[in-house]
Amino acid sequence: MQQENPSRTGEFTAIMRAIHQTADEEPKILADPIAPRLVDTTGGDEWLASSLGHPFAKQWRTGFLIRNRYAEDCLAEGVERGLQQYAILGAGLDTFAFRQPPWAKPLSIYEIDHPATQRWKCDRLAAAGIAIPANLTFVSVDFERALLTDALRAANFDFDSKTFCSWLGVTQYLTPDAIRGTLEFVLSLPRSSEIVFSFVLPFEALPKVEAEARAIAAHRSAQAGEPYLTALRAEDVKAQLWEMGFSNVIHLIPEEVHERYLKNRGDGLKARVGEQLVRAIV
């Protein structure tokens, strides 16, 4: 991303979560009363308006919702197993800390992102009158230019505590070396720590309509200074995680997304193929 500008793609993600609160039926895949207070969903700019009118728009929205819902479901399971910290890598306009359920109150939550994006988010929160919860710490870092461990150490992160990490909508903007470096950080955490992260598949693995939508998204991201750098095949992701030494690797396939979150819905929300999720446990 451009060094002095906030993440345009991070804003788009929050807009999709906000639209879900009014455009889609109950029960919500992700109930998020905070997102509508942080973003403009009117479609006033060309990027948003054209995206909302695309035939793939509902699947786009579904993908953004599912990745947060799945990560938060896994986090809840992890807290039951004794996880004490939640690190949101590339947090953008993530809203979990501001709508956290009672079971999350004992957690230490760290939102980790580029300095420009964090300044922009804090300005949005202040303008909306949203208070910073006592258990949230902002950590500024550029994943391509600085060591995550150094930034966390300066923020009093406890490297001896079991930690849950989410890393959503980020890996496509990083180099393979930067991706591996972050996964090695997770592996350095105590046993039972884990990460849920998303990755995008290569163009040739996508259905035609989704490939067209991806091409549009990639072009616009590049224009905003956030070019796509890495696409991954699920088999390669799983093989790398096993090879690195994770004790368990769980790939959430689109069919399971449908069974868990989309079955019997009447609003046309469908799972994406081109962005998928994996859960890796130390």
Question: Can you give me a brief rundown of this structure?
Answer:
The chain is of the alpha/beta class. It has helices at 8-23, 35-38, 46-52, 57-80, 115-128, 148-154, 176-187, 208-223, 234-244, 254-262, and strands spanning 85-89, 108-113, 136-140, 163-167, 194-200, 248-252, 275-281. The protein is built from ten helices and seven strands.
Can you describe this structure?
By secondary structure, the protein is of the alpha/beta class. The chain has one domain: Rossmann fold (3-Layer(aba) Sandwich), CATH 3.40.50.150. 43% of the residues lie in helices and 14% in strands. It has a seven-stranded mixed β-sheet, sandwiched between helices. Helix 1 crosses helix 4. The radius of gyration is 18 Å and the shape is globular. The chain starts with 7 loop residues before the first helix and ends with a strand. The mean pLDDT is 92.
Mean pLDDT figure? 92
Number of strands: 7
CATH architecture: 3-Layer(aba) Sandwich
Percent range for helical residues? 40-55%
The gross shape turns out to be globular
How do the strands line up in the largest sheet? Answer: 3-2-1-4-5-7-6
Structural class: alpha/beta
- How is the CATH topology named? Rossmann fold
Rg on CA atoms, Å: 18 Å
The number of helices is 10
Beta fraction: 5-15%
CATH class descriptor name: Alpha Beta
Give start-end ranges of low-pLDDT stretches. none
Sequence of secondary-structure elements: HHHHEEHEHEHEHHEHE
For the record, give the distance between the C-alpha atoms at the N and C termini, rounded to a whole number.
30 Å
